[in-house]
Amino acid sequence: MKKIFTTPLVQFLFFGALIFLGYYWLNPSQNNEETIVIDDNQFNRIVSIFQKQWNRNPSEEELNDLLQARINEEVLYREALKMGLDKNDEIVKRRLSQKFEFLTTDMANLNEPTKDDIQKFYIENKEKYQVDPTFSYAQIFIDIDKRKNVMNYARSVKKSIEGKEITPELLEEYSDPFPIVLYIENVSKSEIINRMGDDFYDKIKSLEIDKWSDPIQSSFGLHLVYPTDIIKVAEPDLNTIYNVLKRDYLYDYQANINKKLLNEYKNNYTVKVIVSDSVIPQDMINKLEGDGK
Q1: Cβ distance 176 to 198 under 8 Å?
Q2: Domains in the chain: boundaries
Q3: Can you give the pLDDT at residue 5?
Q4: Which of 5, 9, 91, 133 has a CA between 20 and 30 Å from the CA of residue 175?
Q5: What is each CA distance from 247 to 32, 81, 116, 121, 251, in whole angstroms?
Q6: In this structure, what is the dihedral angle of CA atoms 123, 129, 130, 134, given to the nearest 10 degrees?
Q7: How far, CA to CA in Å, does 261 sit from each of 70, 138, 208, 256, 267?
Q8: Model's pTM, two decimal places?
Q9: Does domain 131-231 have CATH number 3.20.20.140?
């Protein structure tokens, strides 16, 4: 027995085992199945990848999203392993977590929505499927930089033109130079917002037809607006957009399943953010760690 113990191979194995046990005694495992650790190496790698892609440091919000994505990926990866999705598969962690998400897609597709489900979804999201009205209007532009007491001037112009026939000559006579045509036909909501801004659209959408408005502010200056036509398109028929609604319904349903499962699985793990030099705000750390159990 003594002779066996003195052989080099046995001594190597013995002292190797002592070193192995000593390491784990001095360094209790932080990578056990129920704990997710974000350490310096992982943090620096995440930030480095972002820097290479965008040539700048991530903002606080972006950093939070990056760290949250790393935690989410690890949670889904471990759950995928528990389900044996890694068997005979050489795909890396990201692919395993994606594979798990693909399962939830199948779960969503198995839940074939009824017509009542689609109708309820449409009612709850009706604004997404509305067809914007179109507008036709004449306008007189008043350059703020060229006029003193510009509001009084605009009101005096309005008083002068009320009751007169709307002609190109009238518009040009009273309007300051303007880079956009003074009479616009069948322009959509999005076009108006892109050209003139949200506030301008909010004002003109409720104007009376064939009546000059009070001065309206845009990103260019002041405008007197004379709507000649507002075509409010009827709501789309449910049957004509049924397939689009069904697609969007299933997409939302799957997203909700993913979110619910992820939150449930997070409760099985303890998240630890161990990064030196306080490079992550403490409230962000508290939130990341608080998402676990």
Answers
A1: no
A2: 1-30, 35-110+255-290, 131-231
A3: 42
A4: 133
A5: 40, 30, 15, 11, 6
A6: 180
A7: 16, 55, 52, 9, 10
A8: 0.43
A9: no
